[in-house]
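Dear all,

This email documents one entry for the complex benchmark we are building for the journal club exercise. For each entry we list the sequence lines for every component of the assembly. Then comes the predicted three-dimensional structure of the complex as a token string, followed by one or two observations. Please use this as the template for your own entries, and keep the labels exactly as they appear.
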Amino acid sequence: MLFEDIWKILTNGELMGYYFQGFLHTIIVTFIAVGIGLILGFAVAIIKISAGNYKFMKIPAVICNLYTTVFRGTPVALQLFIMVFAVFAIPGFKPAAAIITFGINSGAYVSENIRAGITSVDNGQMEAGRAMGLNWLQTMIRIILPQAVKNIIPAIGNEMIALLKETSIISMVGSTVGTLTFDLNFASRTAYKTVTNYLATGIIAAVFYLAVVYFMVFIIKIIERKLGSNDKRGKHI
Amino acid sequence: MINAVNIYKNFGKNEVIKGASLNIEKAERVVIIGPSGGGKSTLLRCLNLLEEVTSGEVILDGKLISPPDAYLHEDILRLSKTYKRLQKEGKSDEDIISEIRAKRLLKNGEGFAFKRALKETSAKYGQDINVARRKMGMVFQQFNLFNNMTVMQNLVYVPVKLKVLTKEEAKKKAENLLARINLSDKKDAYPSSLSGGQKQRVAIIRSLMMNPEVMLFDEPTSALDPEMVGEVLSLIKDLANEGMTMVIVTHEMGFAREVATRVLFIDGGKIAEDDVPEEIFSRPKNPRLKEFLSKVL
């Protein structure tokens, strides 16, 4: 029965069209949100850390702390509703508002990942740079960050994977075929109207998700391996 | 060359340096000894402001590199609200100045004129700390080579970035220095593949790349295996023979005796004895120094 229904979907051009559209939209939404999250997270992490060195960064750091507290402390679904129906309640702006929400939410987590990665670099590296006459920012960019990246990448990869799956709530704010809020999850729910088997439609969506995540893990592994090249010692352990 | 005046350094409520003054002349080799926790490393790190001083001033070649310390400037003290308050009580100028200094009466909010005077002083006599640090090489206990760079990049990156040397000059100089310490074959290696002694020797020549006027050594051999101490000490001795000005914190008493022109004994955050090595090691006066030497020699 189950395999029959899966086969029915796989051979139905219209239904598979929904899936591929949803697949594409999921990737687009994730990609843009990850971009926003990385830029925002990086900026917030640098502001928080620089407050220890530059007094004028103290107030921006307080604002950044508030931001991470609020966005990590509330459910993303709630944030999505507030942003789409209150903050950015502009006609036709719904998908953009949703993507921005995912980006801002992700930025809060990414900033903590980056901050942790930076603080895990031995303080002696900063001291050595400063003692030679580099200023804080020069040392941070050329000495600390390249070493921190190695610690940051696995955590960021994790966050990207979580974000990809989190975007499946985007259709909660309403969706129709052709708009960006028509994602993989909504494609599966649309296919249900024809097949009336949640397990079958869900399994196909799951396979799509799994395929993207597998591909992402593959890319992250390659990056990690490349970054590890100047630190070969102890790799066999 | 380096002049540290009445340095105090607190970590929270913990007073580590309690009023140390120190004047280092060109070509002097000052070795700092003393019991652990006495403030040796902290004092050294105050000289290039890796530790911000709580009060007191650090002066390099006649230029102020720490923030100005109001207690050291009578004319600034006279602008403070505390001074004016005491003046109203009818005390004499001399009494007020000495009272403020002795009881360290200054608080936050001594008034606009006072603040402006401090700012003007640092503008007039001050030098940017990042510029000043180029003249002071620093060697750390834990080497602190840049782990993301090869040996060659470690040597050339900062002097080229700060335009102390051109790319070609830096490369040539780095090659000469590497040849001098017999590590030419390691120039493309990363620090993680070097031994402790090799790392420390590279760290020393990295400081030399900046053509420093003075070198600060913070326990340069304390993190090394015993068989590697010799190679690092002999490089430092070579530099000493070339007339480099040095301040060295160390536990190697034999080395201190051999290389120093002057030895400071630091105990409890103060400079307890300051003399030539023969006097310090053969005829110590301070009872704490006698006790210390009987333990380590």
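Observations: The CA atoms of residues 205 and 219 of chain A lie 22 Å apart. Residues 13-50 of chain A form the longest helix (38 residues).
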